[in-house]
Design brief:
This protein is mainly β. The chain has no helices and eleven strands. Strand 4 and strand 5 form a beta hairpin. The radius of gyration is 14 Å and the shape is elongated.
C-alpha cells in the first residue's frame, strides 16, 4: 500500500503565500506523475497542477503565473508553491500520485492523500 501525506495548509490573507508538501511512502517501485487538486465547498474537485517524473508541468489556467509545482524524486515528495492567493481559492487541497508498486507487474495505481485545508481570508 502507498500513503500520501499532505502538509502546509493554513489560514492566510488574500495576496499571501503558502507552500504545500505531499510525501509518498510505502510500496513504491516508481512514481510517474504527481499532482495537486482542490475541492471548494459545494464544488467538484479540480486539477490545480501536475508534474511528470521528468519534470514537465501542467497548470490550471486560473493559477498560471502564481503557483509552482515541483518534486523531489529522491524523497517521493511533491510541492505546491502558491503565491498571490485569492479568497476563492479556499479549498481542501489533495495530492495524488501515479505509482508502480512492483516492477513485476508494471501496473500503475493512483493514490490520493487525505487533503490539507487552505483558507484565504479577504
Amino acid at each position: 500500500q502507498v500513503q500520501l501525506v499532505e502538509s502546509g495548509g493554513a489560514l492566510v490573507q488574500a495576496g499571501g503565500s503558502l507552500r504545500l508538501s505531499c510525501a509518498a511512502s510505502g510500496s513504491i517501485f516508481q512514481i510517474n506523475a504527481m499532482g495537486w487538486y482542490r475541492q471548494a465547498p459545494g464544488k467538484q474537485r479540480e486539477l490545480v497542477a501536475a508534474i511528470t517524473s521528468a519534470g514537465s508541468t501542467n497548470y490550471a489556467d486560473s493559477v498560471k503565473g502564481r503557483f509552482t509545482i515541483s518534486r523531489d524524486n529522491a524523497k517521493n515528495t511533491v510541492y505546491l508553491q502558491m503565491n498571490s492567493l485569492k479568497p476563492e481559492e479556499t479549498a481542501v487541497y489533495y495530492c495524488n500520485a501515479d505509482v508502480i508498486t512492483t516492477q513485476t507487474t508494471g501496473l500503475v495505481y493512483r493514490f490520493w492523500g487525505q487533503g490539507t485545508r487552505v483558507t484565504v481570508s479577504s
